[in-house]
Amino acid sequence: MATAPASSAPHAPLAREQLLRAYRTMKTIREFEERLHVEIQTGEIPGFTHLYAGQEAVAVGVCEHLSDRDYIVSTHRGHGHCLAKGCDVQGMMYEIYGRAAGLCKGKGGSMHIADVTKGMLGANAIVGGGPPLAVGAAIACRNRKDGTVSVAFGGDGSANQGTVFEAMNMAVVLKVPALFVFENNGYSEHTGADYAVGSKDIAGRARGFGMPAEKCDGSDFFAVYEAFGRLCAHARAGGGPATLEPVITRYYGHFEGDPQLYRAKDEVKRLRETMDCLKKFRARVEGEGWLKASDLDPIDEQVLAQIDVAVKSARSAPPAPESEVTTDVYATY
Ligand SMILES: Cc1ncc(C[n+]2csc(CCOP(=O)(O)OP(=O)(O)O)c2C)c(N)n1
Ligand SMILES: [Mg+2]
């Protein structure tokens, strides 16, 4: 058996193009959120905004396994899920600014972004509202017999909702390809998960429903990618639902404007230093010799420029017209 020369890097778990894409998407989510954090303070963005910064490796580690034909259902903290599933940066920015050119014609805003052409069935302001929708989509996947899957993103708080328990039980009973991703970022609004999750173990609780479940470090893209890969393969092969509990942190408050009095003074600073998914990704890919800094630095610049254009265009774009206030809102049968 031939042995590799000592200087050669071990095989990367993803192809070079995929590593570059994963980094670009995580970086896009981070800069999208960092810029919104600044722009929200101008008062130009209507409605409520919940930022996803810090959790990027979860959305991207999961969505790297999905195509446009697979479905996701998101939460109130949905920008990262949308971007990871392929929603257009400019279309999202228009939407968040309430502009007519937005992905939902400026009528949904930050918490109600959807793009069905990308399999992104919608963000959802109802905590625990996503899993029942995702199970419905999973029934369609199963009936089509085409190996597609449906993913419900949720938080540690959502994991305590009755709607979620019913959806998880139904997914097991009907053996549908539904994947539940509970991003345990330690808080539900201002309440700690260590207090509110009775069993302290969301993955363990999912196993109680009769499905495989894993817990992983949500700040490690590779840990999320590999764990979700195993669970997704199980669902695609007809094995039924599965659950992933990535343990992660959010960098900003529950919503923009949250004074975060429930967090220790240096908590976020410490977590930015020790749990940053972008830093961890760069350390791993550069350390293993899979990519070089010179591959990644230009991506940083391109992403910043793209976000800048998106914000400037959104600020000057026309709002959704009043004449259309009731169109696309009510279904007619
Ligand atoms: C049914 C319902 N109950 C309460 C709320 C108010 N609420 C909005 S977000 C949130 C916390 C959700 O926490 P978690 O699921 O952990 O998600 P995270 O905000 O941490 O991403 C709550 C209680 C709501 N929107 N819907
Ligand atoms: Mg939470």
Structural overview:
Strands 1-2-3-7-6 form a 5-stranded parallel beta sheet, with helices on both faces. By secondary structure, it is of the alpha/beta class. It has helices at residues 16-39, 56-63, 79-84, 89-96, 130-144, 162-174, 193-196, 202-208, 221-236, 267-274, 277-287, 293-316, and strands at residues 71-73, 150-155, 178-183, 187-188, 191-192, 213-217, 242-247. It binds thiamine diphosphate and magnesium ion. Residues 75-77, 125-128, 154-158, 185, 187-189, 254 line the site of thiamine diphosphate.
Distance between the termini: 67 Å
Category from helices, strands and their pairing: alpha/beta
The CATH topology name reads Rossmann fold
The percent range for strand residues is: 5-15%
**pLDDT averaged over residues:** 95
- Characterize the main sheet: 5 strands, parallel
Radius of gyration: 20 Å
Number of domains: 1
Order of strands across the widest beta sheet? 1-2-3-7-6
What binds here, in terms of ligands, is: thiamine diphosphate, magnesium ion
CATH class: Alpha Beta
Q: H/E element string?
A: HHEHHHEHEEEHHEHEHHH
Question: Architecture, CATH level 2?
Answer: 3-Layer(aba) Sandwich
Uncertain stretches of 5 or more adjacent residues? 1-8
Number of strands: 7
The CATH homologous superfamily? Thiamin diphosphate (ThDP)-binding fold, Pyr/PP domains
Shape: globular
Number of helices: 12
Describe the structure in brief.
With 333 residues, the protein is of the alpha/beta class.
